[in-house]
Amino acid sequence: MAKTDFTSNIICLESVAFYALIEEVVERIKSNNTVQVEKWIGEGEAMKLLTITSKTTLQKYRDEGRIRFSQPSRKVILYDRDSILEFIEQHAKNTFQ
């Protein structure tokens, strides 16, 4: 069995340099993990946001003009995420204070 050499290297940084390094690492992580939110979403995601399970309810909201949608082709209907969030916000109830 081979022996592993565990030599350690110590790196010393002044606190200013250390915090600058940490800030740079955090910024790189943020820039690499940016998730872009789509404006137009499909039926499943729209239903999930609205917490509904019925396609009929989704169609009712669409037909009544409660949420915006786009129909780029006959069988494709996309929903405006912002209008769904606005619809939810309009139905929010304030708590008693």
Fold and architecture overview:
The protein is α+β, with helices and mostly antiparallel strands and 97 residues long. It has a domain at 40-90. The chain is 46% helix and 12% strand. The chain is built from four helices and three strands. Strands 1-3-2 form a three-stranded antiparallel β-sheet.
Mean pLDDT: 87
What strand order characterises the main sheet?
A: 1-3-2
Structural class per helix/strand content? alpha+beta
State the helical fraction. Answer: 40-55%
* Poorly predicted segments: none
Total count of helical runs of at least 4 residues:
4
Strand content: 5-15%
Topology of this protein?
Layout: H1 15-32, E1 40-41, H2 43-50, H3 55-63, E2 69-73, E3 76-80, H4 81-90
Antiparallel strand pairs: 1-3, 2-3
Annotation keywords:
97 residues; alpha+beta; three-stranded antiparallel beta sheet; 4 helices; 3 strands; 12% strand; elongated
Offer a concise description of the structure:
With 97 residues, the protein is an alpha+beta fold. Helix content is 46%, strand content 12%. A 3-stranded antiparallel sheet has the order 1-3-2.
